[in-house]
Design goal:
Elements (H helix, E strand, L loop, with lengths): L1 E6 L6 E6 L2 E7 L1 H4 L17 H10 L9 E4 L19 H9 L1 H8 L8 E3 L2 H10 L7 E6 L6 E9 L2 E9 L4 H11 L8 H8 L7 H4 L3 E5 L2 E4 L19 H29 L3 E5 L6 H10 L4 E4 L8 H10 L19 H10 L10 H10 L4 E4 L13 E5 L5 H10 L8 E5 L7 E2 L11 E4 L1 H4 L11 E3 L1 E3 L5 H14 L3 E6 L11 H10 L4 E4 L2 E4 H4 L2
Parallel strand pairs: 1-4, 4-5, 6-11, 11-12, 13-21, 15-19
Antiparallel strand pairs: 1-2, 2-3, 6-7, 7-8, 9-10, 13-14, 14-20, 15-20, 16-17, 17-18, 21-22
Keywords: Transferase
Family: Belongs to the NodU/CmcH family.
GO molecular function, one term: transferase activity
Length: 545
């Protein structure tokens, strides 16, 4: 069976290809179009399809659209209802629904040779659930989905047994934890459906002094249900304009909303554990990208294991929809790695460099060269292997720096054009993580949890320590990422530090670098000292020599 999964309707359009029950390719449209998040989540853009990522997925497997057995579209317009009946203020939502109903025809036009009848609608939250319960490592698990909205709801709780889902609870709109957090994102002057992670970062600078009042709008209510209604945010603090300075009130409001979100997630998880008795929870939906809430869920929740889909937002529903349809005909396996995007051979990378007439070196070991540059306090653009699926740079498209220089946090935020309160993450060998980081699950390969940094290490790796003493850790297993592990080992040999700063290879407002041209453009426009493009090294002083 050859199934193409498509996410298109709201935001983060993406495609994934499942062949014989295995995910072989997945990519977000933004990596090809170079439009952040692919498009804005407006009814007027709902007709846009991830055509570029779809074509690449097919090319990766040597398929044509006619070779597909099905296309799984991660939304079912037959389950939707008018926005006013759902309690939503969205007068153009009917246009979104109309575009969704016409998706088979649109897809057939975008992918010549595809028969419209091969397009299958998959309920949005079923696709999210499959991206966790089927793509995750457990054949049996409880599954939790929380996001902004699907057809009529914003939540699903269920139970996977042998990768077959039983739905235990849903909740209709307008109650939505995701929309609750999106509304606050906009009130705080950030871009909704895009910058929610900035609210999470800002929350660490505040205290939850408004939490009691906000609980009247957002709280768990028992029996697998919750309340999350629109909040009159202006009653707490004036709306912040984009680019305006943030105040203590803004930080306190973020902290208060973050606490209410965490309490709601915990309440739902406790109920779900009572229903299933499972040891493992799999988690997806945009709310699952809140790594602070994930850590509290791990620490205080009833599940021994919590697995979060690396592409937990809407992009991941492309994988989930394809697995959901494939499971009807054949067994399916877990997602093997988030590194499911584009990659190039060494010779192809050499050709890119020579075509661009870029001076480069071919050292015996690029890992050692990068470690040496980092030890000298250089900033390195690291471009290796297939690109990551999802919003986190996990050692394939990364900016790296020395963690022992406190100024490198401000330096990297300046390089990327980001807000000063944004943290950067530590990358560490899995076997060394426990001596430095605690309070979250280890190993933690996908940067989806925060950990406490041990007191004796905070002054040694200050660049990766957030204001609250935590860090969003990525652990590296040498069996899965031998090149990254070799670089970390070489850096420790030179500095005594087994940690390197890792943040995504992009600048503010731009998607993560994906192909070699993107890497060269980013390197040429940002103050980066070394580009490690596969086995090749490009030095800034020679690049501009």
């Amino acid at each position: 069976m050859r199934i193409l999964g498509v996410n298109a309707l709201f935001h983060d359009p993406a495609c994934a290809l499942v062949v014989d029950g295995r995910v072989v390719a997945a990519a977000e449209e933004e990596r090809f179009s170079r439009r952040k998040h692919g498009k804005r989540p407006l009814p007027f853009s709902a007709w846009e399809l991830p055509e570029l990522s779809a074509r690449w997925c097919l090319e990766q497997a040597g398929l044509t659209p006619a070779d597909l057995d099905a296309v799984a579209y991660s939304y079912d317009p037959g389950l939707s209802a008018p926005a006013d009946e759902l309690g939503l203020d969205d007068p153009w939502d009917w246009l979104r629904q109309d575009y969704a109903r016409q998706a088979p025809g649109f897809l057939a036009e975008a992918l010549p040779g595809l028969a419209p009848g091969k397009v299958r609608f998959v309920p949005h939250h079923m696709a999210h659930a499959a991206s966790a319960g089927m793509a995750g490592p457990h054949r049996d698990s409880a599954v939790l989905v929380l996001d902004g909205r699907g057809e009529c709801g914003a939540y699903l709780a269920g139970h996977y047994r042998d990768r077959e889902l039983t739905v235990l609870a849903t909740q209709d709109l307008p109650d939505s934890v995701g929309l609750f957090y999106e509304d606050l994102t906009e009130h705080l002057g950030f871009l909704r459906s895009s910058d929610e992670f900035k609210v999470m970062a800002l929350a660490s600078y505040g205290t939850p002094r408004f939490a009691d009042r906000i609980r009247s709008y957002a709280r768990p209510e028992g029996n697998g249900r919750f309340r999350a209604r629109p909040v009159p945010w202006r009653e707490f603090t004036p709306r912040r304009g984009p680019g305006e300075p943030w105040t203590r009130d803004h930080a306190d409001l973020a902290a208060s909303a973050q606490q209410c979100l965490e309490e709601t997630v915990l309440g739902l998880a406790r109920w779900l554990h009572e229903q299933t008795g499972e040891a493992a929870l799999t988690f997806a939906g945009g709310v699952a990208l809140n790594c602070v809430a994930n850590t509290r869920l791990y620490r205080e929740g009833p599940f021994r294991e919590v697995w979060v889909q690396p592409a937990a937002g809407d992009a991941g529903t492309a994988v989930g929809a394809a697995l959901h349809v494939a499971r009807e005909k054949e067994p399916v396996g877990p997602m093997p790695t988030p590194a499911l995007g584009r990659g190039w051979s060494d010779e192809e990378l050499r050709q890119w460099l020579e075509t661009a007439a870029v001076p480069y070196e071919e050292p015996a070991d690029i890992a050692a060269v990068v470690a040496e540059e980092l030890a000298r306090d250089g900033v390195v653009a690291w471009f290796q292997g297939r690109s990551e699926f999802g919003p986190r740079a996990l050692g394939h498209r990364s900016l790296l720096a020395h963690p022992g220089r406190a100024a490198n946090l401000e330096r990297l935020n300046a390089v990327k054009g980001r807000e000063e309160f944004r943290p950067v993450a530590p990358m560490v060998l899995a076997e060394r993580a426990a001596e430095i980081f605690s309070g979250g699950p280890l190993p933690s390969p996908y940067m989806l949890f925060v950990h406490e940094v041990a007191e004796e290490w905070r002054e040694r790796v200050p660049a990766v320590v957030h204001v609250d003493g935590t860090a969003r850790v990525q652990t590296v297993d040498a069996r899965e990422e031998p090149l990254v592990a070799r670089m970390l080992t070489a850096f420790e040999e030179r500095t005594g530090l087994p940690v390197v700063v890792n943040t995504s290879l992009n600048t503010a407002g731009r998607p993560m670098v994906d192909d070699p041209r993107d890497a060269l453009e980013c390197f040429g426009s940002a103050p980066v000292d070394l580009l490690a493009l596969g086995p090749f090294a490009v030095r800034r002083r020679r690049f501009f020599g």
